[in-house]
């Protein structure tokens, strides 16, 4: 049903492109070279300037509906200590039924699988459209990648009926998990000011740590709600506390802390900020908070898209996947403003790790799953 050698070979060639964010390393040009002969119109979409410039690729075959989209990213995280790897991180070595290399799992293997599936599928020359939304800015700040591509697609009326993101969603085996939503992420850098002094004379000082600890009480590993049908409870965790104090007998003049809230659709970022700033004011004293909203929560309810994905996964693997909104953020948070979106890809156990690798058989089976998704989507009556 599939061409097993092509997907694995393409994954290896992509791994050899040293595309550590924001570098492209030739990965997008390689994909354009593969997609052009298949009838895709490949459009380079660079966004940002100077050091912030990011390369992206939008590829579409066909003009009418129905319209199926795949999405993914070719950029990868740094390799860390390259000497700790058993194989050079960008060598794409195949050994013991595995393909090794940075990006093998996250997510060049997934991109290779959906390109291979498309390559098989378009032989039948189906009516409708297939799009590929490929960014080089998912592992970084994500300001000039999929976010900008979605804005561009909306402006040009390129609106898919649905989108499958090839992120590594599975926990233990291929077929475990479909991600149909993600939590939001809100971070804060909080500084509290006081008056420096000798700990033996606290009445002559004002210890900001006392107030800081009171301010952090609501976000110190606390569940903020009970969750809902699609999400676990929202949770907040303190990640750093720092005074810069080098001695033990001085009350510091200032103290800072960082915390992060991963929140579900029961919460809104604006509401969380307002609630916490009201709390900080009740504690009192001088304080300043810098907020960074990295992602809003979203969910694609169970329905046509997840049913299509489930049926395809079961057909190929026999595994019944669960719907999950766990994990960190992904570019699906931008695509949700364009069309229904969900994620399914490889097993993520080694992503971002030394000796990142994927089972070669999993790349081939994922290709087949994507091929079945395409077939079911375009063959269903509308």
Write the layout of secondary structure elements.
Elements: H1 4-15, H2 27-35, E1 41-44, E2 56-61, E3 67-73, E4 94-95, E5 98-100, H3 104-121, E6 129-135, H4 146-155, E7 162-165, E8 177-179, E9 181-182, E10 184-193, E11 197-198, H5 208-216, E12 222-223, E13 235-242, E14 250-251, E15 254-263, H6 269-283, E16 286-295, E17 298-299, H7 304-317, E18 322-324, H8 332-335, E19 341-343, E20 357-359, H9 360-379
Parallel strand pairs: 3-6, 3-7, 7-19, 8-18
Antiparallel strand pairs: 1-2, 2-6, 4-5, 5-20, 9-17, 10-15, 10-16, 11-14, 12-13, 13-15
Helix pairs in contact: 1-3, 1-9, 3-9, 7-9
List keywords for this structure.
382 residues, six-stranded mixed β-sheet, five-stranded antiparallel β-sheet, elongated
Count the E strands: 20
Quickly count the helices.
Answer: 9
What percentage of amino acids are in beta strands?
15-25%
Low-confidence parts? none
In this structure, how is the largest beta sheet organized? Answer: 6 strands, mixed
Q: Give the N-to-C terminal Cα separation.
A: 25 Å
Give an overview in words.
The protein has 382 residues and is α+β, with helices and mostly antiparallel strands. The strands form six sheets. A six-stranded mixed β-sheet has the order 1-2-6-3-7-19, covered by helices on one side. A hairpin with a 2-residue loop joins strand 4 (94-95) and strand 5 (98-100). It has helices spanning 4-15, 27-35, 104-121, 146-155, 208-216, 269-283, 304-317, 332-335, 360-379, and strands spanning 41-44, 56-61, 67-73, 94-95, 98-100, 129-135, 162-165, 177-179, 181-182, 184-193, 197-198, 222-223, 235-242, 250-251, 254-263, 286-295, 298-299, 322-324, 341-343, 357-359.
């Amino acid at each position: 049903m599939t061409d097993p050698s092509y997907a694995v070979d393409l994954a290896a060639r992509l791994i050899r492109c040293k595309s550590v964010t924001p570098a492209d390393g030739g990965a997008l040009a390689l994909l354009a070279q593969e997609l052009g002969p298949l009838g895709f119109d490949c459009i380079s979409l660079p966004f940002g300037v100077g050091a912030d410039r990011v390369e992206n690729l939008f590829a579409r075959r066909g003009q009418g509906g129905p319209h199926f989209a795949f999405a993914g990213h070719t950029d990868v995280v740094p390799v860390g200590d390259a000497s700790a790897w058993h194989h050079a991180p960008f060598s794409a070595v195949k050994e013991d039924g595995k393909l090794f290399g940075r990006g093998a799992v996250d997510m060049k293997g997934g991109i290779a699988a959906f390109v291979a599936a498309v390559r098989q599928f378009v032989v039948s020359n189906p009516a409708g459209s297939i799009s590929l939304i490929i960014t080089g800015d998912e592992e970084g700040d994500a300001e000039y990648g999929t976010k900008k591509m979605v804005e561009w697609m909306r402006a040009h009326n390129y609106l898919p009926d649905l989108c499958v993101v090839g992120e590594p969603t599975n926990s233990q085996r291929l077929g475990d998990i479909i991600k149909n939503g993600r939590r939001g992420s809100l971070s804060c850098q909080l500084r509290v000011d006081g008056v420096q002094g000798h700990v033996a004379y606290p009445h002559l000082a004002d210890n900001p740590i006392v107030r800081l600890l009171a301010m952090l009480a609501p976000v110190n590993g606390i569940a903020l709600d009970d969750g809902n049908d699609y999400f676990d409870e929202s949770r907040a965790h303190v990640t750093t506390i720092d005074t810069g104090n080098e001695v033990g007998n001085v009350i510091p003049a200032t103290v800072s802390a960082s915390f992060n809230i991963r929140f579900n659709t029961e919460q809104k970022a604006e509401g969380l900020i307002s609630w916490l700033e009201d709390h900080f004011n009740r504690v009192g004293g001088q304080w300043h908070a810098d907020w960074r909203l990295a992602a809003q929560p979203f969910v694609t309810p169970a329905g046509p898209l997840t049913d299509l994905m489930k049926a395809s996964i079961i057909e190929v693997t026999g595994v019944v996947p669960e719907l999950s909104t766990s994990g960190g953020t992904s570019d699906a948070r931008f695509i949700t403003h364009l069309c229904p979106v969900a994620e399914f890809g490889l097993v993520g156990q080694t992503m971002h790790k030394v000796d990142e690798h994927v089972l070669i058989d999993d790349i081939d089976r994922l290709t087949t799953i994507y091929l079945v998704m395409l077939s079911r989507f375009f063959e269903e009556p509308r």
